[in-house]
Specification:
Blueprint lengths: L7 E3 L5 H20 L39 E2 L1 E5 L2 H17 L8 E2 L2 E6 L4 E5 L11 E2 L6 E2 L2 E2 L3 E2 L8 E9 L6 E3 L2 E4 L9 E3 L9 E5 L3 E4 L2 E4 L1 E10 L4
Parallel strand pairs: 7-10
Antiparallel strand pairs: 1-15, 2-6, 3-5, 4-18, 5-18, 6-16, 8-9, 11-15, 11-18, 12-17, 13-14, 13-16
């Protein structure tokens, strides 16, 4: 699908003070999870440890032909979940504005919990999309012990009743760091081989602290490895009924 606008960004939409509060809340939640024995490592393929899997698989990689996607890890980070209402009140007006001025005008109904993500040295998130938006990707209800364990539902399930039957339509990433606090950790897009312009895009626009980027969840994207310092980000997925 060709879009006139693949993403919308708002530089320094959140203040330094807001970013600091969110980082403190996210770090506190990670510490709390660890004390409870809840894993905080960002995982993509079930509950496997990355040490038992092959390293990140790039798109169109013929070297590993015949290997299943479940044999790779494409993510290395620490995460926690935030649901504070004041954060939604800061972020959602920007999401709604982006949805309108971009021309997408997706029918949006709900949002998932915020994912606070901490990328340390050499940590990354390989190429992926957050959702397809089709009926087959609609969320099913998560029942602990039946389709997942603890805080980890199996793919396609959600513990949030208001998101059952919904799909991810818009993805939101907020850069919580000052630019001089880390190197690497850049958000990149892959628009696919049939795009009329450049296929790959490096998003340097959101380097300023508190900057927000909004994009359709079906776009492929990655976070490059952090080469110095620690990168903090806040991610949100905004949902609605499947595309018709």
């Amino acid at each position: 699908m060709e879009l006139e606008h693949n993403y919308i960004y708002i530089q320094s939409a959140l203040t330094k003070e807001d970013c600091k509060k969110i980082i403190e809340a996210g770090e506190n939640k990670i510490s709390e999870f660890k004390k409870q024995g809840i894993r905080t490592h960002g995982i993509t393929a079930g509950n496997k440890e990355k040490q038992s899997m092959l390293s990140a698989k790039p798109l169109n990689d013929d070297v590993h032909e015949g290997k299943s996607d479940d044999e790779y890890y494409i993510r290395d980070s620490e995460i926690s979940w935030l649901t504070e209402q004041w954060i939604y009140e800061l972020v959602m007006p920007h999401v709604n504005t982006a949805n309108k001025i971009s021309g997408w005008n997706f029918d949006l109904e709900n949002a998932e919990s915020f994912q606070f993500t901490k990328y340390g040295l050499n940590q990354f998130y390989g190429w992926h999309s957050d959702g397809s938006g089709c009926h087959k990707s609609a969320y099913k209800r998560y029942y602990p012990g039946v389709n997942g364990e603890g805080l980890t539902p199996t793919k396609g399930h959600t513990p949030e009743p208001h998101n059952v039957g919904k799909v991810r339509k818009l993805s939101v990433t907020i850069n919580l760091n000052a630019p001089d606090e880390y190197d690497g950790g850049l958000l990149n897009f892959d628009y696919g081989p049939h795009t009329s312009g450049d296929r790959y895009k490096e998003c340097t626009e959101i380097k300023p602290q508190g900057s927000i980027i909004v994009f359709p969840s079906f776009l492929y994207h990655q976070v490059t490895p952090v080469t110095k310092g620690t990168r903090y980000s806040l991610v949100l997925w905004v949902t609605g009924r499947p595309f018709k």
